[in-house]
Amino acid sequence: MQFIDELNESQRAAVSYNDGPLLVIAGAGSGKTRVLTYKIAYLLTQGIPAGHILALTFTNKAAREMKQRITRLVGEDVARYLWMGTFHSICARILRAEAEHVGFTKDFTIYDAADQKSLVKKIVKDLQLDDKIYKSGMVLARISSAKANFIDAEAYARNEAYAKIDRLERLYKMASVYAEYNRRLRAANAMDFDDLLMYTVLLLNNNPEVRARYQQRFWHVLVDEYQDTNHTQYLIVKLLAEPQNHVCVVGDDAQSIYSFRGATIENILTFQNGYTGAKLFKLERNYRSTQNIVNAANSLIHKNKGQIYKQVYSEKEVGERLHLTGYSTDREESSSVARQILGLHRLNKRDYEQIAILYRTNAQSRNLEEEMRKLGIPYRIYGGMSFYQRKEIKDAIAYFRLAANGSDDEALERIVNVPKRGIGATTMARVHEAALREGVPMLRVMQSPEVYAAEIAAATQRKLQAFAEKISLFAEQMQQLDAFEFAQLVLNQSGVMADAAMDTTAEGVDRKGNLEELLSGIRQYVEDRKQQGEETSITDFVHEVSLLTDQDENPDDSVSRITMMTVHSAKGLEFPVVFIVGLEENLFPSPFCQSEQEMEEERRLLYVAITRAEQECYLTYASQRWKNGQVNFSNPSRFLKDIDRQYIQQLSAPSAEPSPWRMSAVSNQQSAISYQPSVISNQPTVATRNLKATTGLKPKAEQQTIVSNWNKGDRIDHKVFGKGTVVRVYRENENDKIEIEFDEKGTKTLLLAYAKLQRI
DNA sequence: TGTCTCATTTTTTTT
DNA sequence: AAATGAGACA
Prior knowledge:
about 750 residues; alpha/beta; eight-stranded mixed beta sheet; six-stranded parallel beta sheet; about 45% helix; DNA-binding
């Protein structure tokens, strides 16, 4: 037990307390993960077998890292038997083993967001509801919220609180949509993310002998980031830990930022009610950040009303104050941040790896990305499109999914015509209708269309059968081949690979490259699993992949890069230098929070952001920002006033109102009409859109034309603008002027135009 | 059936 | 700015 010396007093107390449930309130940077890691190591040295310890984390990455740290303490041959993972992956593991108890087979598919959305759309259509009211996003949010609170479709129908909101939104049939949604998932032998949690609770609730088995398996249950658990997760922990209640949860109410996903801070606040005799430990010493950073963050968070009182403190150096800078535009903000990063790298010898830029919304990464590229700063963006979300990858995986689970209608619809097989929407609508009517999977209908859907033309029926046969052939092969061999076979015989290979455009080459990357990923997977002596089938691979997120992608190369991500995904991370950008009203805080509670959550979000910084923290805002293709004027975030001024150094405020670029469009020498003051920055940039209203251009000609970042003499791509159209962009009170003339070619594709930058 | 054009919408965060 | 959806047309 030499490692217990590496802990401070309160950490050690939490680690070695073992007489019952405990709640560890761990301030930011106070060694939360350290406590959890050491606690597990401690349990292991106390003779608890690794296979009897369950540790639940928030992300796969956190689980992986914790496992690595424990491995370093106790060795691989012990650590590998730990049950460690996200709620979702552990639940999936349990559910696959016990699938028949909840009426699924162990090969059930996990539907991702796209599958869910498409399913909801179909249901809304089939139930003949108005899709303007039953928007898929809204419907899914309602369902997800219900599932997070362990409310099934039946209970939903009886639930007055939900009904009230639904009435407000005119979603009178919401309960039936929910019920139908679940029926369809079940028919497809599929679960969504929330089902993984929901069905685990059902499983344990309804099957005493299964429950007893898992309760006997898990002697100790530990939960990280407890402030971000929802009610269903609370139930899972409760059910698994009974009756001994050897539960250890670690969290920080000040960092609760996922209530939009159903997380409830109540879980922390009432922990001691749910587990009588629970002991509370507080970790208040921050080992991460300088005093200025910790104090600034404290002054901010103390403006919140609801919180467990704690005084986080740092004994590191006082450090620099937070640097606050205002800019007139978002472009300026981005380019200045880029220049500062370059400076930090060159002059202060900062490794790029030590620097992160955090923002409220993913959309903000675009500008930043551009500026980084301009200055040659290597970067890594988390969020946005991950590898597994690319079209060709999803297509490939849909083939695997369908082979593994013939009821997976979403996978089927995705690939039935990829590559083109002449099976169009009309045919699929008939297949869908028949499948619904007969209560069979669509694949079955396609196997014998003459039985189920006779109205389909004979020639088309043969196409359907050919497809169905191909899939059953794959399903057969799947039994004999390992994941890599199988994937290779499918990509070749499905035509997906050939399709990509035929396309010689840049995107086509990319697609082919991605597919090859997928293959080599699968090969790697097979090799790894072989070494571990584990299964190497494609189904395991698919199951694993469906629980991955972009956070989990390989840190790839050895190049040192700055990191750009949303504040949410930065939770749990730390960087010597942090830039927090876009600190404006209607962005951060988000324009969507109505209630005071939501505002407090946004404040916690900024608290999380600031406390990521170890040494330097830069805060920026801009007074003009592009949003949804429009310029927005904004004020500095109210949160800036919440931070005690003594910890902030204001470097500069936006200079006087910039003279914006104005744009006018002239059609055939018609009169010029000035357009909204839009464009910004010293780089002449033009954005035109929907000019019809203002210019009277012919209806054909005027859709969205975007030209950005010009230099003298640049050639630019854009859409057809209409014969003889001239667009002028000029800067008020100055003589800079850009004039573009559009010629009339351009039938379908983009027209190349020539931009002339001139001074008049 | 497939492609192209035009119009409308977008509420933020993620396992 | 980008994505989605509807409708026209080959």
